[in-house]
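Subject: Sanity check before I submit

Could someone independently write out the structure tokens for this chain? I want to compare against mine line by line before I put it in a report. The sequence has 549 residues.
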Amino acid sequence: MNATGTEQVVLEERRRWWRRRWVMWTGMAFLGVAIAGALLVAWGLRQIQPMLRKKVVETLSARFNSPVELDRLSLSMTKGIIVSGGGLRILYLAGPTKPDARPNAPPMLSVDNFEFGTGWRELMKPTTRLVTVKVNGLRVNIPPKGNRVDLDNPKRRGQSALGIVVDRIECTDAKVTLETNKPGKKPLEFAISSLVLTDVGAKKPLNYTAVLVNPKPVGNVRSTGHFGPWQDDNPRDTPLDGDYEFTQADLSSIHGIEGILASKGRFAGTLGEIAAEGVADVPAFRLDVSEHALPLHTEFRAVVDGMSGDTRLEWVKARVGRSELTATGSVTRAVGMPGHTTEMRVVMERGRIEDMLTLAMKASPALMRGALATKTHLVIPPGPVSVSRKMRLEGTFAIHDALLNNEKMQQQLNAMSERARGNPKLANAQDAETVSSSLSGTFSQADAVMQIPQLDYQMPGAEVTMVGQIELVGSKYEFHGKVRTAATASQMTTGWKSLLLIPFDGLLKKNGAGVELPIQMSGVGSAYDLRLDFPHNTGISAGTTSAPK
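---
Independent answer below. Compare away.
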């Protein structure tokens, strides 16, 4: 190799060495810049973090005129600027609590965790606009009006511009507690599994979409509507409206009834008084004392006291099977124990006795069919006992055009009617006239036993007055009374039997009746036993029980 070639090789190696050095120095420079940038970002985050924390606290404090506490707040650069925090507490939403009324009162609003994303520009603006804030573990506690100190502070009406504005708030695991100062009553709690608030503004209604957890019957209530603006001085006056849908609610969580409920409707008003209208359907509604189910359709209008949970039923229209009824009443929270007391005045003008017997007794088919009219006072107290056992009834009833579903029993009734009218020959014929009956009386029910202290039974040619009871569990019944016929004893028979009874007609006549005799009827389900009652028993062993008026 000549000298020129050697020099070229040396020069090439030097160039390669400088290139390697340049790459290394450039990389080190970039690394230094990156480290410096990271340190600068970290420094910037440390500087911004207290500034942002101060902005959050001042914004909420100005909005609610309340002390605000925030345990932690941090920023990260994983995806833009992510702000997370927790331990947020706002002491007052509706004025401070009187110290003597609730010592060591909890904050009216608290948040376990929250998170939102933003950008550098938004952070540096006087008013930071946030698109979405995610909140977990929201708790709202509102004390009774009498336990709060009224604040007449003009500054609450003319607050300065807020430091943070939020477009959307997404909440999970939220709970609202409305406390009460009524002795024996527990606070009213609403569990909310998810809540989305949009168009969030200080003094304008916001839109919401919520899923509430209904304890009994168990299920989720989905609702959309408007809420606010929040009334600081009296939260009861805060407007609220929306539409709701409650589906696939299992009624078996209420001891004593079964069925799957679906309901939808609309409500409007304030937290203090909410008027609601809706419909509810249970395709197969059943009581535990029966093995039979009927479709139940209900339309209603109710007014709910949002601070106590008590409900006034202004009107209810229901259809059970083919029976229609109307009702008014109330559902109030019990004092001293969990649960509610339901009290209703029920009027049924177009009902069917077979529907009521189908729901109340296991006999199949129902013992009787016919038109039913009734007026009933219904009370269902709270407690773990099944609905069929704890509900108390008291009222009057009338049944028209009644026919027995048991063919043999109806034929015997037809024959009895022919004899009572003095047509014994027709009573023995296969084509005896089918007769319908009418019944009326009073009743009361408690502990799943229906007492009937007065039963008037009429059919062509005969009148029956009885007293008795029906045990709903087991479908067992027993009645005692007397029967009065239009025909005399001799007129109810034929041939030599009629001749033999003629001398006794005068003895058997009583109070204008051809014959008056004591009778008793007992049975289980569709089976019965009807016979003369000697010695005459005017009552039954069990005492009568009536529901409170």
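---
OP: Matches mine. For the report I'm noting this point. The longest helix spans residues 3-64.
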